[in-house]
Amino acid sequence: MAKKRRKKDLEKKEEKIRSKKDSGKVKEKTKKIKGDKEIQKYSGVLVVGLVIGLIAGVALLSSFSIEKQSTLTADEAGQKAVDWISNFFEAKGQNVSIKLVNATDTKKGVYQIGVKINGKQGEVEQSYYVTKDGELLFPKGIPIGEVSKRPKQGEQQQQNQGQEQNLEIPKTDKPDVKLFIMAYCPYGLQAEKAYLPVYKLLKDNAEMSVNFVRYAMHEKKELDENLRQYCIQLEQTEKFYDYASCFAGGDGNYTKCLLEAKVDKVKLNSCMARIDEEYNVTGMYKDKSTWIKGKYPRFNVEADLNKKYGVKGSPTFVINSKVVKVGRSPEAIKEAICSAFNNPPKECGQKLSADTTSTGFGGGVGSSSSGGCAS
Predict the structure, then answer these.
(1) Of the given ranges (18-22, 28-32, 243-247), which has the lowest mean pLDDT?
(2) Residue bearing the bigger pLDDT, 80 or 273
(3) How far is it, in rounded angstroms, from Cα 95 to Cα 118?
(4) What topology is assigned to 59-138 in CATH?
(5) Which residue has the higher pLDDT, 209 or 32?
(6) Could you write out the three-class secondary structure of the chain?
(7) Residue extent(s) of CATH 3.10.450 domains in the chain
(8) What is the model's pTM?
């Protein structure tokens, strides 16, 4: 009996040992399966991260065909970027055509390029930046300079609903057209750059001017520049287009632009001093008790027009005494003004650029006709 009992005890112990071994194997197998799943999981995250980083960050262009050199021309770098974008979409199986529209030197160490992307969802225009050696593509540039930095208090988006045109503009024989801006408002500069080619085209057929909002959001330099452009229009009208195109389309160097436009500085300084004294522009800046809601100094030179048309911010378009919404491209503005003629002149048949201008100083194209500076 004792022998039988010991035999059964030995069998039970052996069974427990086998059970533990089997359990260990199962655990090992389970652990391995979980590990494999974790590897797959993190591999997926890595792949997604790489794609997101490629699109939202910086793209490497060095694998394409243009021969490496220290500096490419703007067009060469632009075409290289277009080739890369085309290959990117092709690799993703998307049937998209990419066209280089323009390429300009920003004078900031990179080229800015405009491209048209055509796909099954329609056509869109985009701006990109590419280094001068053609090696890096930046899908978005964020200006950090004095003018283009993050909007200050009150500098808010005005939803102008893209390229919407107001179709109820009153008609006259000679339309009266006013563009109200602040000289250093990035969106005012955008509108002014789109407006100036139309000004040049139609100024002999319509009453056209650049006017100024009754307050300034960008320090005293804006009061001075408002005054400068006001006086050039007032007394040296024939010089205004050249000066304003240089100022808004360049880097805002007014000294250089006065020289290039051949503005009579003695006459200009006399006008600015006279208007400053008449409207107390400098005094309004110094006396903060006169500042309007939002803590911005007044610019009362055209306060009567601001009140008449209910101008709230920069930019504001007024055609034949009606505030209108208009896309910020030369063609869109031309069409709006030409619709205000009883009998449009032959100049209205001339096609201008349909590209939305970029915000802030300089050339290039933008993607939106919304945004403004308003208190």
Answers:
(1) 28-32
(2) 273
(3) 9
(4) Nuclear Transport Factor 2; Chain: A, (3.10.450)
(5) 209
(6) CHHHHHHHHHHHHHHHHHHHHHHHHHHHHHHHHHHHHHHHHHHHHHHHHHHHHHHHCCEECCCCCCCCCCCCCHHHHHHHHHHHHHHHHHHCCCCCEEEEEEEEECCCCEEEEEEEEEECCEEEEEEEEEECCCCEEECCCCCCCCCCCCCCCCCCCCCCCCCCCCCCCCCECCCEEEEEECCCCHHHHHHHHHHHHHHHHHCCCCEEEEEECCECCCHHHHHHHHHHHHHHHHHCHHHHHHHHHHHHHCCCCHHHHHHHCCCCHHHHHHHHHHHHHHHCHHHHHHCHHHCECCCECECHHHHHHHHHHCCCEECEEEECCEEECCCCCHHHHHHHHHCCECCCCHHHHCCCCCCCECCCCCCCECCCCCCCEEC
(7) 59-138
(8) 0.59
pLDDT in tens, 350-362: 999 999 999 999 9
User: What Cα–Cα distance (Å) separates residue 60 from each residue in 75, 108, 194, 368?
Assistant: 18, 20, 33, 27
Under CATH, which number does the domain 176-374 receive? 3.40.30.10
> In the chain, where does the domain assigned CATH 3.40.30.10 lie?
176-374
